[in-house]
Design brief:
The protein is α+β, with helices and mostly antiparallel strands. The protein has helices at about 5-45, 55-60, 110-115, 150-160, 205-215, 245-250, 265-270, 275-280, 295-310, 320-325, 355-365, 380-385, 460-465; strands spanning about 70-75, 80-85, 90-95, 100-105, 170-180, 180-190, 200, 335, 350-355, 370, 375, 400-405, 425-430, 430-435, 440-450. Helix 1 crosses helix 7 (about 265-270).
Amino acid sequence: MRPWIRRTLAVTGIIIAVAVTAAGWYLTQAIPIGTGYVAKYICSGVFVSGRDPDAVFREDVAPVNPLAAVISVDIDRINKRVKADSFGLFKATAVYREGCGCTLAVGLSEEDLRRQDIAAAAQKKLLPDDLPWPAGNGEIARPLPAGIDEGKLSKALDNAFAESGSKKLKYTRAVLVVYDGRLIAERYAPGFDRNMPLLGWSISKSITNALVGIMVKNGKLRINAPAPVPEWQKEGDPRGKITLDQLLRMSSGLEFEEIYKPLYDATKMLYGSSDFAAYAAAKPLEAAPDAKWSYSGGTANIISRIVRTEAEKSYRNCFTFMREELFDRIGMLSAVPEPDPSGTYVGSSYTFATPRDWARFGQLYLQDGVWNGERILPEGWIAYTTTPTSGAPIGEYGALFWLNVGQASDHGKRRWPSSPADAYSADGFQEQKVIIIPSKKLVLVRFGATTFRKAWNTDVFIADVLAALP
């Protein structure tokens, strides 16, 4: 064999060996994340939403988790837990607990999780079925308000569910329209209904906004004061100057990779950490506070732990605070906020509620934080929340809510160009939406499993609904 051939084969062999080693290392990092995702999502889908596990796996897990095909699942309905297994080498267990949903057993055993006293008391209240929304859970009250074009409204819902081809790309599951305080339209995909709690994903960040607002109203937190984060209190730590306002606005300057793939911060935190806030709080600064806007789930979980610490001074636990001060007061009785293994509500990602209850949450904000004449959120909180963050490129972010304001120099450059500039929203992964449009007295709710983002167009959806209004 000629020398150059031997050299070529040797180099090729080295390249192959390095590639195989790198691929093997990547899989050892990626598969545990994928296994945790499967266990957690199926646990919540089965025990919180009450869905069929095969449907959850097929429609929700497999399309976004390429490793799902090599992961087996065992569902224990008696003990309410889900175990996922990859090749017998990588295992994950998610545990359901009444009042606080499912949690991955990471860094703690299942027994440790079950010993935690963090859930709110079992919720026994039900809204009456003989009253329409929002006072009850009855049918839509008729006649509809004067000036509503029911044909156009029905067409708007048709369009929201319509698929452009043979494949389900939108995968819309629920659409609700609330106009002038009344539910005027709702529709559900087969297998879903008004009583099924659905995961809001990052809509949870906006729940976190409300929790902070309540703490501010009660004089327990100050948004312009340095955030009370234990990890940052050493003398000379520049992170100690980060304010709660900067955390709420995603302008803390903390390093955090909001990418939902293995090896990135977002997935390491959600599926590989026992304390999400501690994971995020350990991150260094990558920019001075207020110098850079960077969307971060880690930031929301730091805020959630701040709320928990303060709530536990006056309530049995944070989940009791959430139920008594927010959910019960607006009739959001189906809400299930889920904790991380440390017991802190995952304020970045994990809240379930029925679509009708998500609409109640939107209506609270439309009504300036007042419900049935009672102030839930402090005066001026909605104005603060919807003030654009200076670093957001097109004025698209306020305080844990997305905005449609646009650039200060060009209001035409905004998220939804043909929609009202005062529209703002709580958004979640796969196009979960709670949209509030004060100028139109409108709240819109949309839930789905949209993996291909371009399949869903919020601007068109809003325009379709507006065309049906007076």
